[in-house]
TrEMBL record:
The keyword NADP does not apply. Keywords: Metal-binding. This is Coenzyme PQQ synthesis protein F-like C-terminal lobe domain-containing protein. Residues 3-99 form the Coenzyme PQQ synthesis protein F-like C-terminal lobe domain. One of its GO terms (molecular function) is metal ion binding. The keyword Magnesium does not apply. The lineage of its organism: Eukaryota, Metazoa, Chordata, Craniata, Vertebrata.
Amino acid sequence: MHMEEPCFDFLRTKETLGYQVYPTCRNTSGVLGFSVTVETQATKFSSELVEQKVEEFLLLFGERLSSVSEETFQAQVTALIKLKECEDAHLGEEVDRNWFEVVTQQYVFDRLNKEIEALKVFTREELISWFWQHRGGTARKLSVHVVGFGVEENDLEDQKPGDLASSAYGPVSELTFLPVLAPALQEASLITDIRAFTSSLPLLPYHKVLS
């Protein structure tokens, strides 16, 4: 909630990178995190430039978050509590919320109430500490660059649907891993074999957020 407006303002309004610009919280098999997504026009901006601008935004946002007043923080917390206290608009919302607890085998059917209680004791210092903990030297980040191909990306204009081999990025049924050209990304660990990369990772037990 703190990140949404400044994210749109910096990446969409000021940098004009694309219409689809948004941050979101992530819960990947119980591993919590956040992401920033930008959908841009390939003929105007490279994905490496977008990566650089996202990093610039996160740096500026960290400074902004560190200087947020207690009054502003409490106003945001109050707004979030009121949002979680809202009655379900229709029966489907209640069903989906409870069915999620069943299929994930967590069974915390009063999760909203627990989240509200947690928000009431949540502090500004905890929020700032959490952000910098996930942006510091020991933080881990996965940056996914997806580049399309076709006439819109300045590929051959006479390309036919069945003539995929003429594309600059190869057949549509295959992934072509692009080289890293930006100097700022030269030290990044480039993933060119997804299966080999995931096989090298430790397998953690599935985490459930129960309390």
